């Protein structure tokens, strides 16, 4: 903006700007009254204290956000063998808390503290504990389920669990079978309403599909190996043909819905009315009405037709 | 000598006539500014420079130089190019178009420098006179920055108030006799509280003194005809 220098006094110049207002600015040496000069709009400068306060506020806001994220559940992992345990996991893969379903689970958690551990390490810590060892040694079935906010996160958790758990089982408890489910929030809610973990609930649903006349509440207190034996029996092959006793096998059953499908799980459900939320089949695998899919089958050999 | 040339000669000693010429030839000044200044230059700034140059052309004009209008155009153009050259980068662009005619550039620069010096002297004289005039109203240059309104709305109100006083004979007379602003009349005319006018009293007085006094160069520099100039 142009201005006319009116006066230069004690290093300051009084200038008439061409918008009709006057300003006083530090004078340049060459300026004298009557000069036409260019004046620039003064930049608004925040006092240093405001800048510091804003920075501190930003840091606190970031810390608060980080704290909020670290305390918020981002995934749920359930582990069933006979004790049933659920691990609440935050966005950073750390266990927020562990919750037992039943007295045996509570007894196990009384001896093992997994809070704050990475979930894979927490699962290993549980499996390694003396309290769980006897269960794993009984040619049992170990069932995991994973529920998380995104498909990628679920797959990542599942892959990590499979890698660590299968490696441990194959080297320490070769007769134990593992099974994995991806579930959605609706399944988790329904499972909790029945007082079981999502992993056990998936097996109960499978049993109910095969034997609609049973009441799954009657099986809620049974171990997952027993429920699996019932499933096998209803398949007509009986528990004796189950590979549970044939050696360790990582049997994956991606029976839950993927996050993309969770919006309408019932759309993939069997046509017959069902009182419980039904897991939708995973593309390329998962539960089918016509029997168990090949992925499931690989874990149990001839146990499922 | 044409009628216009006679008016210009008269305007050299009559600031009212100079103001009239500025208002009448404002479209010509704007056109010349637009032709002379690059597009990226601040138009309001260049218009102020152009109006100062026109006021300077009035002062410098001699009938034996020919018609006034071509002379005024040359003064405006030279002054704007000079201002751009002093501004730095823009000047290189502006003068780049004129490289084909070196002599003309030199003549322009010389004329502009001469005009600028005359302009500075004229402004300096007006500023000295204004200092004395404002002192009579208790306004010093040192306080002008402090009394200037900062908000756009207040500024517009003050300019409107000053124009009211300058254009209405009764208010002008009252101001001349009492050396005070007719607050009640102004408040009524502008539809605001007298307190609002009183709040900016000294700044409005400054504008009124500039508008009513013999300060054609300062007036020429102030916002274009639609705002302060009457």
Q: Keywords, please?
A:
heterodimer; A: 305 residues; alpha+beta; rod-shaped; B: 230 residues; mainly alpha; disordered C terminus
In short:
Chain A has 305 residues and is an alpha+beta fold. Chain A has helices spanning 48-71, 103-111, 119-128, 133-136, 151-172, 185-193, 198-210, 224-234, 294-300, and strands at residues 2-9, 12-17, 22-26, 36-38, 73-80, 84-90, 95-101, 141-148, 177-182, 249-252, 287-288, 291-292. Chain A starts with a strand and ends in a 5-residue tail after the last helix.
Task: Give a description of the structure.
The complex is a heterodimer of chains A (305) and B (230). Chain A is α+β, with helices and mostly antiparallel strands and 305 residues long. In chain A, 36% of the residues lie in helices and 22% in strands. Chain A contains nine helices and twelve strands. In chain A, the strands form three sheets. Chain A has a six-stranded mixed β-sheet, with helices on both faces. In chain A, β2 and β3 (22-26) form a beta hairpin. In chain A, α3 (119-128) runs parallel beside α5 (151-172), α6 (185-193) packs across α7 (198-210) and α7 (198-210) packs parallel to α8. Residues 237-305 of chain A have low confidence and may be disordered. Chain B is globular. Chain B has 230 residues and is an all-alpha fold. Chain B contains 14 helices and no strands. In chain B, α1 (3-11) packs across α2 (15-24), α4 (43-60) packs across α7 and α9 crosses α13. The two termini of chain B are 28 Å apart. Chain A binds chain B through residues 1-2, 4, 6-7, 9, 14, 16, 18-24, 32-36, 38, and chain B through 42, 44-45, 48-49, 52, 83, 87, 116, 119-124, 127-128, 130-131, 141-142, 144-149, 155, 158-159, 207, 218, 221-223, 227-228.
Q: Helical region count of chain B? A: 14
H/E element order of chain B: HHHHHHHHHHHHHH
Oligomeric assembly: heterodimer
Rg of chain A, alpha carbons: 33 Å
Q: What structural category do the secondary elements of chain B indicate?
A: mainly alpha
């Amino acid at each position: 903006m142009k201005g006319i220098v009116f006066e230069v006094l004690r290093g300051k110049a009084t200038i008439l700007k061409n918008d009709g207002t006057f300003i006083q600015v530090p004078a340049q040496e060459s300026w004298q009254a009557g000069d036409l000069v260019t004046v620039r709009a003064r930049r608004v400068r925040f006092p240093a204290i405001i800048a510091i306060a804003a920075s501190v506020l930003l840091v606190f806001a970031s810390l608060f956000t980080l704290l909020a994220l670290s305390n918020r559940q981002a995934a749920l992992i359930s582990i069933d063998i006979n004790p049933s345990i659920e691990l609440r996991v935050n966005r950073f893969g750390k266990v927020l808390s562990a919750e037992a379903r039943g007295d045996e689970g509570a007894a196990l958690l009384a001896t093992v503290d997994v809070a704050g551990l990475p979930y894979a390490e927490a699962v290993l810590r549980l499996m390694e504990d003396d309290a769980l060892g006897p269960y794993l040694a009984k040619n049992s079935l170990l069932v995991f389920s994973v529920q998380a906010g995104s498909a990628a996160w679920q797959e990542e958790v599942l892959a990590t669990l499979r890698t660590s758990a299968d490696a441990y089982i194959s080297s320490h408890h070769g007769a134990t079978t593992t099974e994995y489910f991806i579930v959605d929030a609706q399944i988790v809610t329904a499972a909790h309403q029945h007082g079981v973990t999502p992993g056990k609930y998936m097996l109960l649903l499978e049993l109910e599909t095969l034997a609609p006349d049973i009441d799954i509440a009657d099986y809620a207190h049974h171990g997952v190996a027993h429920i699996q034996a019932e499933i096998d029996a209803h398949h007509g092959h009986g528990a004796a043909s189950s590979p549970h006793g044939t050696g360790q096998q990582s049997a994956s059953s991606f029976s839950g819905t993927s996050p993309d499908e969770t919006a309408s799980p019932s759309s993939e459900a069997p046509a017959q009315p069902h009182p419980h939320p039904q897991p939708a089949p995973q593309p390329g695998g998962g539960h089918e009405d016509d029997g168990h899919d090949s992925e499931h089958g690989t874990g149990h050999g001839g146990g499922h037709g | 000598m044409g009628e216009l040339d006679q008016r210009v000669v008269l305007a050299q000693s009559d600031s009212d006539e100079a103001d009239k010429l500025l208002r009448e030839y404002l479209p010509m000044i704007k056109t010349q500014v637009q032709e002379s200044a690059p597009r990226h230059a601040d138009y309001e700034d260049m218009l102020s420079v152009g109006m100062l140059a026109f006021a300077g052309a009035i002062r410098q004009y001699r009938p034996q130089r020919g018609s006034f209008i071509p002379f005024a155009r040359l003064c405006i153009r030279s002054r704007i190019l000079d201002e751009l050259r002093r501004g730095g980068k823009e000047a290189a662009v502006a003068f780049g178009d004129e490289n084909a005619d070196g002599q003309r550039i030199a003549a322009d620069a010389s004329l502009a420098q001469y005009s600028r010096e005359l302009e500075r002297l004229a402004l300096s004289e007006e500023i000295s006179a204004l200092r004395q005039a404002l002192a009579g109203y208790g306004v010093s240059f040192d306080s002008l920055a402090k009394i200037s309104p900062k908000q756009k709305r207040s500024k517009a109100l003050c300019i409107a108030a000053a124009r009211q006083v300058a254009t209405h004979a009764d208010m002008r007379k009252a101001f001349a006799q009492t050396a005070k602003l007719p607050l009640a009349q102004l408040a009524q005319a502008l539809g605001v509280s007298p307190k609002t006018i009183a709040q900016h009293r000294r700044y409005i007085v400054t504008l009124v003194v500039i508008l009513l006094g013999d300060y054609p160069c300062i007036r020429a520099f102030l916002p274009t005809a639609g705002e302060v100039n009457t």
